Model the fold of this input.
Amino acid sequence: MTIPELLDEIRAEVGKRGLSRYVAEALRFKRERDRLVELVHWLEGEYGPVSDDERAAAIEKLEELDVEHDRRRVIT
Done:
C-alpha cells in the first residue's frame, strides 16, 4: 500500500479534519515507543539483558494485575 492510498483510507474513516489529529497522535505514539526502545537499550547496557525467567515472571505479574483490574472494574 502506498502512502497516498493509506492516507485516503484513513481520511475516509476520520474525515478531512480528523486526519491531522490522527497523524499527530500516530507520530506521538511512535516517538514514545522509540524513547522506550532507547531506555531498554540503555538498561540492558547497564544491567544486562532480561533473562527468560525474568521475562516470564514479569508477564505473569502483568497477567495477575490485568485480572485484578478487571475484577475491580466489575465491582464499580
Observations:
- The helical segments are 3-14, 16-47, 52-75.
- The CA atoms of residues 3 and 65 lie 39 Å apart.
- The mean pLDDT is 93.
- The two ends are 44 Å apart (CA to CA).
